[in-house]
Rrf2 family transcriptional regulator (Flagellimonas algicola), 286 residues
Amino acid sequence: MLSNSAKYALKAVLYLALHTNEDNKLMVKDIYSRINVPQSYLAKLMQKLSKNGIISSSRGPKGGFYASNQNIDLPLIRVVEVIDGEQRLRSCMLSIHECDSENPCALHDLVGNANSFFIKNLEETTIKQLIGDVKSGKSVLPL
Amino acid sequence: MLSNSAKYALKAVLYLALHTNEDNKLMVKDIYSRINVPQSYLAKLMQKLSKNGIISSSRGPKGGFYASNQNIDLPLIRVVEVIDGEQRLRSCMLSIHECDSENPCALHDLVGNANSFFIKNLEETTIKQLIGDVKSGKSVLPL
DNA sequence: CGCAGAATATGATAAAAATCACATTTCGGA
DNA sequence: TCCGAAATGTGATTTTTATCATATTCTGCG
Ligand code: FES
Ligand code: FES
């Protein structure tokens, strides 16, 4: 469903959304151990996220990565699409082609609904909304 | 969610359930192109399934793989557990640990329910039940 | 300006998943 | 009994994913 990389990326984005802003940046080395992701692997992921506008960054002294107000208004699905590509999430449970309700595979009824429900949630939920739950203690950002 | 191997295995099991029985066996070379799975890869998967009692086989001339009446009464989850291991399906969406409703991660509410719904279905649906839908044309076994 | 601190770019290595190839064992039938 | 047809066992190769390492570019500050 989600690749390991996508999980890492989501954790990183959420961590940035919780702990940074334009005036309060963080470097990879300050983050990786907090979310339990290998340092240089995380660096690569964050570069990709940054290049695709999911998170922000600035170089040089006083620089680092951060989540801008614009960034945290993005829907979660943007994060996983940048990392995993567009079709992985929408692929059929049995075959390689896209999941297709017009031509449901044998497993489609057992999972298709659940999956499209998940996708819909990812599309409709923004990063900002999600960290609300974490802040209020309703959910947790796991190691 | 499901590995490629698990998808292949499910397709193979369903194909056997649809087209074989004790008196009507099939060899890998008769199957692989019908379900679009590399021949020798499929052979390995079917050995594993056979060794774990998910499907049946007999050697020698007139031999082959088949799905017995016992086999098709198994729940679908047995197939994926044999191929993917027990925990993959139940792992948290954000971390490596098991999904845990007591300690929900930030994504849990968005997906946890959908996922446990899927698992429950895999546990409660037998192979036999599933091929009913295929036979009646309600769903399809895709390439 | 120039230096150090940071992201960025590039590519090498390691591990896991997918795929392929072949030797061995078992079994039915002539 | 023996031969060939089939699964089984073992391991090698390829591809993808995950991880590590290093060189390069940009930028604020003194
Ligand atoms: S068509 Fe296979 S999961 Fe939807
Ligand atoms: S705890 Fe993360 S998906 Fe359930």
Observations:
- The domain at 4-90+126-136 of chain A is CATH 1.10.10.10 (Arc Repressor Mutant, subunit A).
- The pocket of FE2/S2 (inorganic) cluster (ligand 1) is lined by residues A 92-94, 99-100, 104-105, 107-108, 111-112 (CB under 6 Å).
- Chain A touches chain B through 38 residues (CB under 8 Å).
